From TrEMBL:
Recorded superkingdom: Bacteria
Protein name: VOC domain-containing protein
Lineage: Bacteria, Pseudomonadati, Pseudomonadota, Gammaproteobacteria, Lysobacterales
Gene3D superfamilies tied to this protein: 2,3-Dihydroxybiphenyl 1,2-Dioxygenase, domain 1
Domain VOC as annotated: residue spans: 1-116
Length: 120
């Protein structure tokens, strides 16, 4: 079995950790070099993402990577978000059968939270 854990390059690891923790991620591990935070591993449920120093924030409409999290109860999760979070798309049903919303993190990366549309 293999596990894929993306690593994104960001300019400020501490600010990135703070942003991700504010939307429900957990800091699992981090590393410092000469007193500066240079790497972090965060988790959301069973999912993992790593952040490494050296990247650049962007205001471009899209970055080279997006994160997709399959969750339960998209609407409740959306309603519990801090008001300071930048919402790119509010909860909506997609043509491919998912209910999703999209956030932009403090570095300009998209995070999509989705769950299968409930059929009545």
């Amino acid at each position: 079995m293999a596990t894929l854990t993306p690593m994104l390059q960001v300019p400020d690891i501490r600010a990135t950790i703070a942003w991700y923790v504010s939307v429900g991620f957990t800091l699992i591990e981090s590393a410092e070099e000469e007193g500066e935070l240079i790497w972090a591993l965060l988790g959301y449920g069973e999912g993992r993402v790593m952040f490494n120093c050296g990247g650049h924030a962007s205001d471009a409409p899209r970055r080279d990577a997006d994160l997709y999290l399959q969750v339960e109860d998209v609407d409740a999760l959306f309603n519990a978000l801090p008001r300071s979070v930048v919402v790119f798309e509010s909860p909506h049903d997609t043509f491919y059968g998912m209910r999703e919303f999209i956030l932009r993190d403090n570095n300009g990366f998209w995070l999509t939270f989705g769950e299968p549309v409930r059929r009545h």
